[in-house]
Amino acid sequence: MPSTYLSFRCSVLWLILSLEAVFIVCSYFLFSDRHILSYSDRTITYLAWQDVSHMLIFGFGFFLMFLKRYSFSSVGFNLLIIVLGVQCSLLMQNVSVFLKEGKLKGSLESLIEAAMSMVAVIISIGAVLGKTNPMQSIVMTIVEIIVFCMSRWINTYILEVSNHVSMMHVHLFGAYFGLAVSSRFSEPSPRAEKNASTPKSDLLSMLGTLFLWVFWPSFNSALIVEKHKVIFNTCLALAVSAVTAFALSGLITKDGKFRMTHIHSAALAGGVTVGYAAESIEYPWIAMILGLLASVMSILGSLCLQSCLHPTLKIHDASGVHFTFGLPAVFGALAQVLLCVIETKSLSFDCEVILNIGAICFTISVALITGLITGLILNLKLLKPIPVSKYFEDQMYWEFPHLAVGF
Amino acid sequence: MPSTYLSFRCSVLWLILSLEAVFIVCSYFLFSDRHILSYSDRTITYLAWQDVSHMLIFGFGFFLMFLKRYSFSSVGFNLLIIVLGVQCSLLMQNVSVFLKEGKLKGSLESLIEAAMSMVAVIISIGAVLGKTNPMQSIVMTIVEIIVFCMSRWINTYILEVSNHVSMMHVHLFGAYFGLAVSSRFSEPSPRAEKNASTPKSDLLSMLGTLFLWVFWPSFNSALIVEKHKVIFNTCLALAVSAVTAFALSGLITKDGKFRMTHIHSAALAGGVTVGYAAESIEYPWIAMILGLLASVMSILGSLCLQSCLHPTLKIHDASGVHFTFGLPAVFGALAQVLLCVIETKSLSFDCEVILNIGAICFTISVALITGLITGLILNLKLLKPIPVSKYFEDQMYWEFPHLAVGF
Amino acid sequence: MPSTYLSFRCSVLWLILSLEAVFIVCSYFLFSDRHILSYSDRTITYLAWQDVSHMLIFGFGFFLMFLKRYSFSSVGFNLLIIVLGVQCSLLMQNVSVFLKEGKLKGSLESLIEAAMSMVAVIISIGAVLGKTNPMQSIVMTIVEIIVFCMSRWINTYILEVSNHVSMMHVHLFGAYFGLAVSSRFSEPSPRAEKNASTPKSDLLSMLGTLFLWVFWPSFNSALIVEKHKVIFNTCLALAVSAVTAFALSGLITKDGKFRMTHIHSAALAGGVTVGYAAESIEYPWIAMILGLLASVMSILGSLCLQSCLHPTLKIHDASGVHFTFGLPAVFGALAQVLLCVIETKSLSFDCEVILNIGAICFTISVALITGLITGLILNLKLLKPIPVSKYFEDQMYWEFPHLAVGF
């Protein structure tokens, strides 16, 4: 048994290496003509890239660090998945743009879009945090990023959704893909001692949340030319949703105490929601109300989903991605359509509105269907799914030379 | 008793929600005309906003995290206070500019000023860290930010102090307001076991200090157009004050060991001091000398104040805001006036100098008087001040689901 | 004995203060004419400065924090050394430019170069981490930064290496200087209980690695005008080297588990290697292959060096700077020469190539020779080297008032 397991482990490592070889060979063929690579030199592009990469590496790395025995894996595998996924996403990105337009985008611009697409994968990974082995995570990453890029391509070029809005669907896609995958994994026992946080891990997770919170305006404005309005609206929405998170967290817990996980989820909900419409919001108070409603939805969602919906559907949502990213994203996407209708003052639903709603439904359906299929694939014997008793544990994947000394 | 306490807790939550409602309604009326909102699109504004928000959220959040049982509250309530205060400050800001000039500033610019004003509140909160309940913190935040905005308005428009210098008074105001409030709170017993740090909390606090230290040049240059000179001078002052902090810390402790809290305070003192005059310093060595003197003042201040002044006045300064921000700010403000006099080479004190000194005195007096009044209000029975034995403790405000499992 | 030790400690503090006085006096004479100070106001300069300072303060501060009883010193002395060294480096920088060109560079530009030069010192400090007292660290800092600035001056002005490449030699110089110094210190016993990490310290070190990793593209592009290409190439190289780090780490440990220190070293190796040639790499796949080879070299290097080379040479490399920075830098420097040859398609080695190879050899030899001499000086009785039993310990330098309460 150990020897077969060891050989399985080695196969993970060879998988990683061969994936990397494939990426290098692909980029050899794709970027072979130096004339199609354009390097614009705008400072703002560089800034957007930096902020997005900080969000991915620090923000999500630490956001997912709340499990008490899974901190190495949270940070480490987050890095592994991002660096693998970004390369795959960059190739997909460039292939799709090349097919359509015959030339490549500026390199750093396409790197930004590749990195933003990876948010879908990280959200999905969050939904099954602690339940997948590295092999499963890598397969899931590659499948999801390819499907997301194709779904976004259809949204942008066929349903003619704007580039920014089609990128914002990343939250929708990530959350529902993750939930669908999660439904195929066995549920941990509710009293699992390892499925818990410590004050220290909660603090590190709070550090991650603050990183995400602070960089969210950059994320929402990364693909937009006139950034300042988007940034202003996102900041207000985030502020209001953080305030509301505190108030509601106290109201729904007994004793009126605050719960850290509520703050984590609800403070970010405003940013997710306002992302869709930020460009078209004319008055700050609209952004503030969106932030407030997103936060309410996220906290009530966490209450209802955990007590009603999930026990019925047997879906265990490890880091609450449904109410942190899923619900606020649905709400934000609908709000954007509504604001669009109000602004054009047309009573009749016109073509653009229908296409936008179509894109939302399309994204969710693709996410659910491919998520289910991916979930089934991941639980094949071939990929050696880990038993429930070994969930939420670092020690299978990392060397701890210090353990001998006393932890 | 528990039931009245629970109902009190709920009243905090309703206070938060109704404050938020007030802010939304106010911004509905204030920002109702889209033509008065201008969105400049300068990258540099966005950068300044980001740096200031990083300072507030990470820097101060972690800087105040040195108490061993108060880390959740330090980070959490810091976020709550900032998001509430920034909205209030933004409204005050825009009302005051609107009253004077009939139009609003660019939105992100006013957000930067709103966020910078919040530094006053966070410094004051630092002075009573661990002694206030959320209700008291919120009342204090709202009162202080309103008073500070009014005091700054008088400084800018009546005493005709430059916009930058009047914003730098934020340190002065925050420190003396905090001290005055603190004087109305009972002192913890000097041997209070909870009023202590652990190496871990000291490290997190050091992380916060480093954040503040690194972003201080951005803070000092946020309102200035020609930033590079200010940044260069602030960097040099910070470097010299950090060096001096190490040397003096070793000299005044027995055994010649370094004390972390000395480094925290004195390394920042140079940045506070040089903030006032950074624009008018012609030679780098002046900035370096200011940094050195600020650090000396901060460390000697910590020695004298803790051993002589505070026992007499019965003021317990929880995070040493007096010698970290107060004294260096007084020194910096005076140095700026002096440099101004030297540069104009006029022997007679001219009008500008008198107005500048007047602004310093005015700011300190307003801070002390309103601080005292606020301190009295906060200790009304109505706000249920917490007993001394419950100081410096998280557990009253936060759920710790993991406590059952073993901390 | 304690009293002589105390007086020795005081002499450290007076050394710091007098160094600071020297720096202030020097900058008084150097920057006395305000007309030679130019302040350009390009946003991009400010950004580059910020990113480099973040790398130094956070990145290296936390990267070096893996020792379980040395976290205060890692962060604290890192700050002390940087603030001292940057001032010295800034003076050296300006003197050398002034001697050659008769005027000073823009101030922030020279600050960036000064800060980047400090990377050499921090790498060397990493090689003897935990073995030097503050006096030794300070002497080493001052000697190394002066030698490095002189070596860079010769590289730039005599060997006519480009400014960017001569700065990239910082890794080479730092690693080999550190190794040479380290060879003069006694080796700790291999079972030293304090020479170990805990999961917590490993996580903090990972945080530092991530900081370095994320800011590495800024470091590589700081001195280059057309940044976007360099950033793009560095990002790809870093991504590939992180992927390879995971795969190889699993392959060379027994059980196929990942080792955190492998990830730390190898993920950065790609950035070090690609730094030299980033500007002249035309196709992304070249950067990717460089990243892959750098990572392979770093991990195999760690395996070979620790098991073969170091036991022979009796060099204990505390944080593995040889295979993290040294080997990848040698490889990167050679790769840059090779790419240069290929591009010019000249079969005969021309003058530029010879000068570049000369610069590499010159830098390494200067580093080794001056490092050996510095190592001998540091072990003079005068500087009171600490005994092997006191290695890797904070408690000699820092007050821990909380120890009484229970750690």
From TrEMBL, chains A, B, C:
| Membrane topology, from the record | Multi-pass membrane protein
Q: Does the keyword Transmembrane helix apply?
A: yes
Q: SUPFAM superfamilies annotated for this entry?
A: Ammonium transporter
Task: Tell me where in or outside the cell this protein is found.
Answer: Membrane
GO term, biological process aspect, one: ammonium homeostasis
Which regions span the lipid bilayer?
A: 12-31, 43-67, 79-99, 111-130, 137-154, 166-182, 203-224, 230-248, 284-309, 321-342, 354-380
Q: Does the keyword Membrane apply?
A: yes
Recorded GO terms, molecular function? ammonium channel activity
Q: Where is the Ammonium transporter AmtB-like domain?
A: 14-393
Which Gene3D superfamilies does the record match to this protein? Answer: Ammonium transporter AmtB like domains (1.10.3430.10)
Question: Which Pfam families does the UniProt entry name for this protein?
Answer: Ammonium_transp (PF00909)
What is this protein's record name?
A: Rh blood group CcEe antigens
Taxonomic source organism = Meleagris gallopavo
